[in-house]
Amino acid sequence: MPDIYQDFPIKASAARVYAAVTTSEGLDCWWTKESAGKPVEGEMYELWFGPEYDWRAQVTRCAPDREFELQMTAADADWNGTRVGFRLEERDGATWVRFYHVGWPKSNDHYRISCHCWAMYLRIMRRYIEHGEVVPYDDRLEV
């Protein structure tokens, strides 16, 4: 199965990065249009990207300021069952993010598009955390 991996530093504490990937306030500033959920193993997250993209995911890993993972349970067919995760490690005055989106059924066009989109969204996440920059949802893949 093909997987997506991105490793990069963010000039912020692990607590700030963790909040950006686990809270509605954070997620809605860089990834989702609207979201809801609690960072507790077994809990469900609502990830809303528009009327045709009202997705759900279950928390499968959760260690405050260190690790967070969601398994997609109601999403696009290619995303169902995949896991999106963040491993965080403070070092050298920054938090190193080890991002992954694993379990793709095949390397198809949607997988290839998602590789590009994740790079874009993760860049927006870093700008949000480091500079407080919030890009309007409809403009996120154009910046």
Question: Can you offer a commentary on this structure?
Answer:
- With 143 residues, the chain is of the alpha+beta class.
- The chain has one domain (4-142): Alpha-D-Glucose-1,6-Bisphosphate, Chain A, domain 4.
- The chain is built from 3 helices and 7 strands.
- The chain has a 7-stranded antiparallel sheet.
- A hairpin with a 3-residue loop joins strand 4 and strand 5 (67-74).
- The longest helix is centred in the C-terminal third of the chain and has 23 residues, at 109-131.
- The chain is globular and about 40 Å long.
- The model has no long low-confidence stretch (mean pLDDT 97).
Which features characterize this protein?
Alpha-D-Glucose-1,6-Bisphosphate, Chain A, domain 4, 27% helix, 3 helices, alpha+beta, 143 residues, 7-stranded antiparallel beta sheet
CATH topology: Alpha-D-Glucose-1,6-Bisphosphate, Chain A, domain 4
Distance between the termini: 30 Å
Write out the strand line-up for the largest beta sheet, numbering strands in chain order: 1-7-6-5-4-3-2
The secondary structure category is: alpha+beta
Question: How many distinct beta strands?
Answer: 7
| Proportion of residues in helical segments | 25-40%
* Domain unit count: 1
- Spell the H/E element sequence: EHHEEEEEEH
Q: How would you sum up the global shape?
A: globular
- Average of pLDDT: 97
CATH architecture: 2-Layer Sandwich
CATH class: Alpha Beta
Radius of gyration: 14 Å
CATH homologous superfamily designation:
START domain
Q: Which regions are unreliable across 5 or more consecutive residues at pLDDT < 50?
A: none
| Count of separate DSSP helical elements | 3
Largest sheet features: 7 strands, antiparallel
What share of the residues does DSSP label as strand, in percent?
35-45%
